[in-house]
Specification:
4 helices, alpha+beta, 4 strands, globular
Amino acid sequence: MSSTLHTDIDPEALAALAEFPEDKPLHMLNYMRYAEMDPETGKTGRETYKEYMEKATPFFAKIDARISFKARPALTIIGPREEQLWDEMLIVTYATKADFFKLIRMEGYPGDIRKKALVDSRIICCE
């Protein structure tokens, strides 16, 4: 198991995503572990992520994207039971990969707030 924490986009993964078909919906599984606290604001990671979602929602409205599913992992049915579950997961559905690329390149997109909210995360593209 890797001890590396992840909160930044992998440029190699973006290059691979660019090769995906243009005309299919893209589903991004977001798996998140919140930071204890943002030392700059004194807010918890959960509070900071809520702020991110409030600021990011208008950006989703400018493209064809929506949150399809959001939940808190509760119990491992298959897999190591001793492994700590993360704090939250959600699936964002984009009409096409172009919408995802538009989002991450939009001026003012609050990705920095998302990064401050999380101590570790995964965004996994699903077909």
